[in-house]
Amino acid sequence: MVRAPCLLLLLLWSLMHVSATVPEPCEVDDDNFRCVCNFTNPQPNWSSALSCINAVEVEIRGGGRSLHQFIKIADTDLKLYANLVRTLPLQRLTVGAARVPALLLFAVLRGLGYSRLNELMLEDLEVTGTPPPPPLEATGPALSTLSIRNVSWATGGSWLAELQQWILPDIKVLNIAQADSLAFSCAELRTFPALVTLNLSDNPGLGEHGLTVALCPHKFPALRELEVRNAGMKTPNGVCEALAAAGVQPHHLDLSHNSLRATAPGAPGCVWPSTLNSLILSFAGLEQVPKGLPSKLSVLDLSFNRLNREPRVDELPTVGSLTLDGNPFLDPRPPTHQEDPNDSGMVSACASSMLAVGMSGALALLQGAGAFA
C-alpha cells in the first residue's frame, strides 16, 4: 500500500505513470528533516513527493501550473486517512507557485486537521472557483503561524473570513504580504482570540485608510505586535488614528521602511494606545522627529533616517532606549557613495585591518633584511 505524506499528496499513485528518465523534482536533506519539491518540468513526476513522507518541513512548488487534477481529493472521505496523517512528523508546510481550486485547498485544510502541522505558508498562489459550504465548526489544523504572500482569491475581500472557517482559532501569528485585497468583510470575519502578532508588511498600497479597514474593530483583542513595514504609511499620526478607530492596543509597532513625513501643522492630535511601549521608525526618511509621538516609550528606534542634528530633549518622548544610528549628524563627512544600511562599516573595518597587516608585514621584512645584512 502506497502512503502519502500529507493530504496534498493523497492519491498520487493513481494520477499518472511517469518515465524513469524524468529527473526527480524533490530533494530531502541528509537528516530527512526538510524536503523541497519544485515541479517545473513539463511532465512533472508528482509521485516523487512521496519522498517527503518523513520530513518535518515540506515545501511544494507547482511550477505555476494548475492543481485541478488533484480535485478528486475534495470528494474523498478524509477520515479514512486520519490515523495515517496523525503519524506524520509534518510540522511546517509551504505550498507555492500554483493555481489551486478553492475546493481542493479547503479539502486539504480539513484533512490537515488530523496532522501535527504548526506553520502553514501559502505563497504565489491563485485560488480559483467557489469555496465549499462552510463547516459547522472549524476542523482544520491547529496552526500557530499562518503566512500568506502574493495570493489572489476569486472571492475578493471575503477570503480571510472563508479561510478562517477552516482552521482552528488558536493562531498566534498572522503574516499577510503582497495581498490581493486587505479590504476585509468585517461582518463576516470571526474574532482571532489568540492572535498576538499581525504582520501586514510589504503591502505598499495599504496606507492609513487601508489599515483602518483591515483592522476590523474587536477582532484582534489579544494583539501585542503590529508590523506595517513598507505599507504606504504617511505619518505616525495617521497610523495612530487607525489604531484608535479599530480599538487595538499593541505593545510594539513597527513603521520602518515607510516614507514618513511630519504631521502637518494644525492637524488634530491623536491619543496613542496606553499599552504602546516600543515604536520602530527606522529607514523612514525622517528629517526631524515627528510631533505627537507617545509621551513615554521603552524603545524608540529612529535609526537610518535623515536627521541632520541630534534631537533635543523636548522633541523626544521620555524613552528608555533610543537608537539614532545611521543618521547624517553622527557622520559629518559628505557621503561619497550610496551606503548600504546592512554594511555596518564592515568594508571599512576590513580595509583598515588589511592595511595594518600589510604594514606589519612590510616592517617585518625590513627587520629581517637588516638581520642578514
Task: Explain what this protein looks like in three dimensions.
The protein folds into 2 domains: 1-180, Ribonuclease Inhibitor (Leucine-rich repeat, LRR (right-handed beta-alpha superhelix)), CATH 3.80.10; 196-334, Alpha-Beta Horseshoe (Leucine-rich repeat, LRR (right-handed beta-alpha superhelix)). It has helices spanning 82-87, 102-112, 159-164, 207-214, 236-246, 346-371, and strands at residues 26-28, 34-38, 57-61, 92-101, 119-128, 145-153, 173-177, 197-199, 225-227, 252-254, 278-280, 296-301, 318-323. By secondary structure, it is of the alpha/beta class.
What's the CATH class of the largest domain, please?
Alpha Beta
Overall geometry: elongated
- Strand order, biggest sheet? 1-2-3-4-5-6-7-8-9-10-11-12-13
Largest sheet: 13 strands, mixed
The name of the CATH architecture of the largest domain is Alpha-Beta Horseshoe
Number of domains: 2
End-to-end Cα distance, whole Å, is 85 Å
| Element string (H = helix, E = strand) | EEEHEHEEHEEHEHEEEEH
| CATH topological fold name of the largest domain | Leucine-rich repeat, LRR (right-handed beta-alpha superhelix)
Strand segment tally? 13
What is the strand content?
A: 15-25%
Radius of gyration: 27 Å
Helix content: 10-25%
